[in-house]
Amino acid sequence: MPGLADTLYNTIFRRNSVFVASIFIGAFGFGLAFDTASNRFWDYHNRGKQWKDIRDKYATPAEGE
Hints:
Elements: H1 2-13, H2 16-45, H3 51-58
Transmembrane segments: 12-34
Protein name: Complex III subunit 9
Family: Belongs to the UQCR10/QCR9 family.
């Protein structure tokens, strides 16, 4: 396992600017993934109860359509 540790050190931890950038990129990616997963979970468990699912039943088309 020393090969993996050396590679990780040399690519990410050696320079502070790369380390900080990788933290920001990782946090941004995690935030996007968590938000997407949360929205999919919410939509799946509330299927048929949300306005986007029942809009066609209640919304009237605008005049001229």
